[in-house]
Each structure stands twice: as structure tokens, then as C-alpha cells.
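The instructor's notes for this session suggest beginning with a concrete chain rather than abstract definitions. Hand out the sequence below and ask the class to guess, before any prediction is shown, which regions might be ordered.
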Amino acid sequence: MENVAERRRAVQVGLILLTCAAALALLWLAREVLLLGFLGVLIGVVFSFPVGWLSRVMPRGVAVLLVLLALVGATAGLVALAAPVLQRELDQLRESAPRAIQKAQGWVRSVQSATGARGSGEKGQAAQKAPEVAAKVGEKAVPALVAVVSGVTAVILIIVLGAFLVYQPEVYRRGVRLLIPKQHEAVFDEAWRRTGEGLRRWVGGIIVSMTLMGTFTAIGLALIGIQQWLLLSVLTFLGTFVPYVGAIASSVPGLLAGLAQSPRHFVLAGAVYLGVHLVEGYVVQPLVMKRAVEVRPALLLFGQGVFGAVFGLMGTIVATPMLVCAQVLTEYLWVERRVGKDPDASGPGKDR
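After discussion, reveal the predicted structure:
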């Protein structure tokens, strides 16, 4: 009898392991869909601010519909007003970026020729490779167009998902709660509340930070005479959503635009981006993001690197809000409940 019982337990353990492996495999295959779903949750959190205010004076469904109509109207208005300017600046940036790269290459070649490293042979090689580069660019045009269409479709799906989530959030919470044993329902409710509150605080803080950084960049670049200041400020606004990595990446087009105009504009553009990032680090972060969930810079960079390596660009985008959720859950479920410590007492200088 003992052998039979042991065999049954072994079979049960094996089935559990196989089920877990199959679930992990399915999650891995559906990782892009899951990341898009998480972005839908973030959109739902963004919608929760205006929907929450409007639902005090009207039914929630009407409030969601008004928010969607306002979003569509604002998008259409911005496209009608800013699209010609953005298109012109984008064309200018496309034309000026190669010139800036050629200038940088010319400086490098001049330094190399001065030190006797390489001569005019490199120029001939670069000229020979130019048609090959143009052909490769032409080959990638169609996949790029397909990627743009797929991206627009994904954005629409994310917005629709966010609208459904913000319309009846309690329905989804109760659905997940049904899977939780009764003795753990109170813990689940508190964890759900804290995670939602943490995401709301982070989303509110990052929206304010994005708006300030985009505005400061637009003012600075316009004052120094960068022609594509509107497009570059939009890139900074979007790049601020991804701390550190996005800020650095969004400054590269501005530096190229400045270099294409003149070395003086390149230096001034660098000074503007440096000043904007200093303002972000010493003014915006202490005043705005300190009120939200604070994630340590080292942990943030490490998480972005891991998510980017595993999930690609989409992983880098959603890394920070996912780390926010993980930090909130870890502090509550492990630090408070399991270890019995106060997570707020572990900050710098609080143990003295």
C-alpha cells in the first residue's frame, strides 16, 4: 500500500511539474500579448483619473464614453494643427541627420589622418558601400510600413482594453478573487488595493514629469534656434516615460539636429538637454516623483536591462511600472507580513 501511495504522489508531483512547465511555455509564447495587456492596464489607470472625476456627476459608462470622445477629438485636433509642422520637421530631421553623421565622420577621419592611422582609402570604401546601404534601406521599407500598421493597431487595442478595464474594474477584481482561498481573501484585497494605489501614484507622477520635461525641452531648443524643436520636445515627452534610458535616447536626435545646423548649435543643444535632465533630477524628481512609488536607480536600471534583454523594446517600456507593482507586493507580502518589518523604516538615515 505504501508503494502505491508513493507512486500516486510521484505521479501527482510529475503532473504538477508538467502543468507548471506547460503554463510557463504558454506564458512565454504569449509574452507580447501579456505585455500589451499590461499596457492596457496602465491606460486604464490613466483613464481612471478623469473617469473618477466625471463619474461623481454622471453614470460611469457615460464618463468613459466622454473620455474616449475627448481623447479622439484632442488627437484629431492635434493632428490637424501640429501634423504639418511635425511632418516638415521630421523631413528636415531626416535630411539633416545624414549630414550630421557625415560631419562626425569627417572629424573622425581628420583625426585619423592627422595621426597617420588611415588615409583616403576609407573614403573610397565608404563611397563604394553607399549603394549597398541604400539598397538595404529600400529592402527594409516594406517591413517598416508593416510594423507601423501593427503598432497603430496595437495602440487602438490597448486603448479599448483600458476603456473596458476602467468601466467595470470591480468585475475583474471579483473574478480574480474567486480563485483565492477564503482564508487569503483579506490579504488579496489589501494587496490589490496597494498595487492599484501604487500604480495610480506612479502614473500621475510620470505624466506630470513627462509634461514638464517636454515643455522645458521645447522652450530651451526654441530659444537656441533649433529648427525641429517641436518634434524633439515630443520625443522628449515620450522618452521620459522610460526613466534614464528613454531620456538619453530622446536626446540623440536633438544633438544630431544641432550638429547638422552648426557646431555651436550642437553645443547649445547639449547644454539644453543637460539642463533639462538636471532639472528633472534635482527639481522634478524630489517634488513630483517622491510622492509616487520610489524605485531605486540601480534596481530600475537593472530591471530595464533584464526586461529589455528578455522581451525587447516592449519590455523596456513596461519595466518601470512592473517594478513598481513588484516592489509594492514585495513590501506588503514579504517585508510586512512574512518578515514583520516596516519597509518605510529602511530608508537612508531612518535607522539612526
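Then share the key points. Confidence is low (pLDDT under 50) at residues 117-124, 126-130, 347-352. The longest helix spans residues 60-115.
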